[in-house]
Amino acid sequence: MKPKLFISYSHKDEEYIKEGFVKHLSPLKNKGLIEDWYDRKILAGEDLQSKINNNLEEADIICLCISANFLHSNECKKEKDNAFRLKNEKGTTIIPIILSPCGWQDDVDISKLLALPTDGIAVSTYSNQDEAWLDVYEGLKKVLNKELKIRQLEVGDEFQNFLQETQMLSKSHSKKETVLLDDIFVFPDLDKFDEYREFEKSLNLEELLQNINIYKKIVIAGEDLSGKTTICKIIFKELRRKLFIPVYIFDKNKLPGKIENKISNALKTQYKNFDDEIFLSKEKIIPIIDDFHKTKNKEKYIQDLILNYNSCILIVDDVFSLNLKDEILIINSFNYYRIKELKASLR
């Protein structure tokens, strides 16, 4: 499925979009590398706002076409806010495209991003606007190439086997030569705790997975033989299905070293065609760290994870006994869950 590009703009700037941006996208569209969408594609009789919202939610890349008109428009501001929500929740790429001189650098959100054309020089200020749109095209193509690399990542054969292993149950079915994890997995219930370590509610792991990009940083606790490693595998597969880049960390020897190095090495082991360029841009990488409670450098690891990754998942034996010096750090940053024991019938 080709990446989807959403174009957010003020209707007062429509000429830039129709006669400039959309025309210059043609080579990428003709090669089947991208599918673009903007609100002039809505047909008569269709629900305008619903179509806009749905296409924005489904976008892989959102282009904010910035001008004084855009910054002045309440509707454009809503689209911008939703775009940054999606960037925060699931790593959606946002590209500001500066159409005309305006105060975009005083916008707290937009000013943090690298804008096109190069150096944020407005399209309208070019003596030849085709040159400006070619600059935008080349910048967008680089972003698209990275998106395609992420989509084309393949889990290595050895690690794929690990994800499907059921260990002692692998030969236990009379009618199947090999029993895979997908054949037997039952989603357990979880208890969720608030920041005061008080019980909040129960939910099923399947429900958590459906919204896992919203919860961001997660701690999941469980007793021995409660299926913690199995849950890591299920989370890994679901995140990859959503086009995130999960990475499983289990350091059985608990060797010292930077968590960044362990994540980098694991990515190269777990994926066939992992590219260092992807590691430099971490929006979609989600570390899953098994047996985190046994780690020696917990505080340092947590600080690095919070600083460098939008999301991460820590698996522990007890959600309330991590023995951290700075417990406020993890309490304020993570959501807490505990695995409930399976009912006898499900087991």
For the structure shown, list the relevant keywords.
11 strands; 4-stranded parallel sheet; 15 helices; 7-stranded mixed sheet; 347 residues; alpha/beta; elongated; 16% strand
> How much of the sequence is in beta strands?
15-25%
Major sheet details:
7 strands, mixed
Q: In which range does the helix fraction lie?
A: 40-55%
Shape: elongated
Structural category: alpha/beta
Helical segment tally?
15
Quick one: how many beta strands?
A: 11
Oligomer: single chain
Strand order across the largest sheet: 6-5-11-7-10-9-8
- The string of secondary-structure elements, in order, is EHHEHEHHEHHHEEHHEHEHHEHEHE
Unreliably modeled segments: none
Please tell me about this protein's structure.
The chain is an alpha/beta fold and 347 residues long. Helices cover 41% and strands 16% of the residues. It contains 15 helices and 11 strands. It has helices at 14-24, 26-30, 48-58, 68-72, 74-90, 129-152, 157-164, 181-184, 205-210, 212-215, 228-241, 259-270, 276-280, 298-308, 327-333, and strands at residues 4-8, 35-37, 61-66, 93-98, 189-193, 199-204, 217-221, 245-249, 285-289, 312-316, 335-339. The strands form 2 sheets. It has a 7-stranded mixed beta sheet. A 4-stranded parallel beta sheet has the order 2-1-3-4, with helices on both faces. The longest helix is centred in the middle third of the chain and has 24 residues, at 129-152. The mean pLDDT is 86.
